[in-house]
Amino acid sequence: TAVRSYAAVDLGASSGRVMVGRVGPDTLELTEAHRFANRPVRLPEGLRWDVLSLYAGVLDGLRAAGRVDSVGIDSWAVDYGLLDADGALLGNPVHYRDARTEGVAEKVWASMPAAELYAATGLQYAPFNTLYQLTAAASTAQLAQARRLLLIPDLLTYWLTGEQGTELTNASTTQLIDPRTGDWSHAVADRLGIDLTLFAPLRRPGDPAGLLRDRVLEETGLTGPVPVTTVGSHDTASAVAAVPAVDERFAYICTGTWSLAGLELTAPVLTEESRAANFTNELGLDGTVRYLRNIMGLWLLQECMRAWDQPDLADLLRDAAAAPALRSVVDAGDAVFLAPGRMPERIAEACRASGQPVPGTPGEVTRCILDSLALAHRRAVEDAQRLAGHAVDAVHIVGGGTRNTLLCQLTADACGLPVVAGPTEAAALGNVLVQARAHGLVGDRADIRRLLARTQPLTRYEPRGDTGRWREAQARLTTR
Ligand code: ADP
Ligand code: LRH
């Protein structure tokens, strides 16, 4: 049988890439066509994404990819571009770390209590959920002019094809979707004054999303027709689709700028206990639910490295491995770490506030970050199992953090479970495989996972030591 090629555009908060996946019955090979920085820009009006440079990176990537059978796009969640009545972009998309949502949730909850909002949408509280962003933007000139809202991958799809849609897995991060029906929650939108006609019709992974426009073919040197296929356009949905698990008893941690740690379920968990633990019910492939917690992730390290003038990462990780274990930990789920800037200082303040030694050298700070992430991974994996009543025997780590072997080992130690690390480019692989599935090359979700397990290099970490040390470290963090 023929092997086909698919281009996956995967935009993370720290970098964008265009990957080419070759897929056949026993073949799955991924190569990088192009990688480019994703550098947000601070304007007088706030923190913005440089979406034109990202689009230019996509075009460069498609040119480098050459002949492909289809293209799929995924990116980080919640953010969007607004179009005017002519379909032109209104301003630069606002970054989810922008300060405009400070204090907004409280206003929303005055109209609809947080508990009701959770029961209706299953979404964790995060200040950047699209719902809060739209509320923050309510009286702006820009929103008044807007006739269409496109989430980031849908915006790029529109620029590539001229066609508009709203992909469901990513739409589930807006807090305007009912996870039980996989459709808009008109009740929530009406109550909070959100105009759902701003959104284009829903599309699901596997749906066609148009053909590359003639001008795009010209600019990329490709020969048409080249279809764009809807994938799980939320990067985390694509990454979870590419977890190479062989049965259902697994937890996953998607590590990159964020750590997204949790379970794949067949139905949402909408209990009050789940809300209190701040677990989210985002949608995955085929009506699955991504039941997970957002943990600050390697953002903590990225921001420290920026403050330290970008030291060599390998050197830092070597020093961190040699630094004393579990000396100080911080709550890696705490929103105090969300905004950019002053990261080493904020970590020091958190250590001080919880009566722990302040890490001194960059190696010690890095160790504190990795211990804290492993601890947060442990807590999320434990809480998810308890809240969902779904036990696991292994933890899969996918994403950029799989390259951090110390983090993988510490996570195994903290969870007291074997960790299977890989693939690193899980989001791109999930993107490719959903395109391949739409074209009949692979079967269901389990087939996708078996193909990954057979073809991708994976590393196994066995838990070491006593998990009591981690329980003791957790006890130092009295705040939640
Ligand atoms: P995102 O998709 O959110 O932009 P990635 O999945 O690309 O993030 O992961 C980026 C992170 O992966 C970096 O912040 C870094 O900490 C980690 N990483 C990348 N390369 C290496 C490496 N060679 N060794 C250890 N960690 C790495
Ligand atoms: C990871 C991610 C995560 C969201 C955040 C905004 O890239 O998509 O799942 O919560 O970005």
TrEMBL record:
It comes from Streptomyces achromogenes. PANTHER family: L-RHAMNULOKINASE, SUGAR KINASE. It is an enzyme of class 2 (transferase). Keywords: ATP-binding, Disulfide bond, Kinase, Nucleotide-binding, Rhamnose metabolism, Transferase. Its EC number is 2.7.1.5. Residues 461-474 have a biased composition (Basic and acidic residues). The keyword Transit peptide does not apply. Belongs to the FGGY kinase family. Pfam families: FGGY_C, FGGY_N. InterPro entries: ATPase_NBD, FGGY_C, FGGY_N, Rhamnulokinase. One of its GO terms (molecular function) is rhamnulokinase activity. Residues 251-438 form the Carbohydrate kinase FGGY C-terminal domain. Residues 68-240 form the Carbohydrate kinase FGGY N-terminal domain. This is Rhamnulokinase. Residues 460-480 are annotated as: Disordered. The keyword ATP-binding applies.
